[in-house]
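Backbones bend. Our protein:
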Amino acid sequence: MVALALPGSMLFGPAWGYNFAMLLSFVLSGWGMYLWIKDLTKDGLAGLVAGTIFAFIPFRMAHYIIGHLSLAGTQWFPFYFWGLYDLLKQGRFAWKPVMMASISIGLIGLTSPYYVYMTILITAVFILGFIIFKGYKRLRDLEFWKSVLVFGLLSTLLVGLAMIPYLSLDAQSGLASRSVEYVSEYSASPTDFVIPSINQFLWGKWIDNHFSPEYWQESTLYIGVVTFALTIIAWVKQRHLLRPEILSIATLVAFCAFVLALGIEPHWLGRKIVSLPRILQFIFHHTQMPQIYLPAYYLFRYLPFFSKMRVMMRFGLFTLISFSLMAGLGAHLLLRSYSQSVKRWIGVGLLILVFIDFYPGPLKGFARVDARPVDYWLATQPNTGAVAQFPFSQESDQSQVYNTLFSQKPFLGGFFNANQLEQYWRIQPVMNDFPSLESVALLRQMGVAYVVVDSSQYSDYVDIDRAIQSYGLILLQVSESEYVYGWP
């Protein structure tokens, strides 16, 4: 996603580049699903329906609204699964599907480590489904193993290159392992897949008032009425499909992703289930829910790197991808028996119904995203040394990362909020005591040129300012509440 945003950022600024990349993800996500369905069915209108569904699923809209650029980057998934399916079924080895799948998963890796890790797990399910539903005879085909082997080597190389920064961070103990209790909070409920988004323009407010999900931006996994109805049609009329096994594979993937999205422990309506339903209370003669761990718990315990992930709900994306695919197949089977003119009207009707089901309404509250005045001042300073922000807790705020785009100065923070570098954890105890002799000495040792202090965070800043200057720093600039110090 950064690569998509970079050209625009360089020409028109980071906010423009960010918005361009975010909006482009809608176009590319829909286009990819459109092309895949068209390839499977030779039906462009069915592809348009499926592409529209996938481009505007509430999951994507929620992450668009909240500003999760990497998680909105779903555009590579249709190309990946399209390439994977084609390389598995090809009778003679061809480079096109192998390269499509390999490059796509490499791009997924560059987009989000969450997505690529989950994709690897889901790929195992997809291949298993292909073997089950396409037939075990493929296992005796040399071309099958050649395709899988070449794909495995290329994808390992590309994903490995994409993961180097994260593996390096983990080697520095910078990727935190989550606790079971913490991860359990981000377990999906089965209801998340059937309850419409709180942002839906007609009944979203009612949904919010009656259900009010705590983590709405993550738990927005609504499949959609139109999507589900078209999926039912696909199953009822599956015998008319050119490649019926893809429907079974998609269903298996959807189910497994659904189970993994349910996370560590059973939840209902966004809350952990702590008591048995009344009918079961009567049968078992007690009210408390016994401790039940779901499959994700065992992956969390025993699978490498699984415990680094925080939000199991995101597995639900693969359920939504599968349903978008199946809806496209259903749209094709629904439209195939009608004349061309009637097909167009039915297609338009389906698109309108998808629009009504998913549309979040006009977004309000647009604002210019700007840096602080002090960052523009720092940009004019010739010294290229690092900037330290105090109180030190502000160093890990994501806004500090954004501010460096304007100041063009390095800073002492790491990744915002979730994971910090080893250096950050090492210096944090000393920097939390700023101003002190030890913290100022450490700042000088680290080559910090500018010490920015937010005076609004201190009750008596006159004393703080006096202490800072007593340790050898001099006041260089005052910009609103930000005091900037440097070395004489």
